[in-house]
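Hi V.,

You were right to ask for the full record rather than a summary. Here it is.
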Amino acid sequence: MGIWKLKYEGPDERFHLVSWSVAPALATAQKVCEPRPNWNCRQSMIYAATITNATLRVSETRIVADLLLKELTKSEWRSAILDDNVLQLRNQTTSRNISALLRARIEPLGKDLWTMIRDGDRDLATQATFAGAIKHSRLLGDFMDLTIREQRTLFAKHLSKQLWGEYIEGCRGRDPEMPHWSESTVAKLRSTVISMLVEAGYLSDTRALTFQNVFVIPELRSYLKQNGERYVLRCMEVME
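Predicted structure:
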């Protein structure tokens, strides 16, 4: 019998068959899995609905970036978010949830990106924040990389409204672990993603949905390249 050897690799972040070796002494075929940590030889969920908790929120992300750069302790972070209400949100639950999401978006990208968000002008801060959102949400990133890229090749002027539903169906094919969301959740996801694309400049507004050219700022482009964030950069370059 042979041994299938599967390895996590490739831009679509799936398991791929990388080799087949003959092993006559084995009575049965064995699967050798080399996944990311804690996957336990099964594919993890690619698409999640966490993006609905907040749109881009550049102003609040600037504040979160400042807190990260200050290297606060856990108690200091909690005090700033809940007691001081630095994000100026309506209640502690909202402050806790929004701050956690914004932190999860930008924290993995490192101090230099946090500095771009905190100290950069509006354009740089927006693009750096958007990079974090793409890094955090494959639902957002793949919509740009797959759907918007296809529309770009077709020279489409506007984003057709029905494309979101078609995209979600395609996501289910790519991700068997994806939840079956209600129609209201799918609509909320669409609304959040569209709002983020408008904030980042890729669409003119939430009604006309006219495509607009966006050029990644050189400082951010260089940083993403140097840090191996090819997927994030590819998504952001879709309208260049």
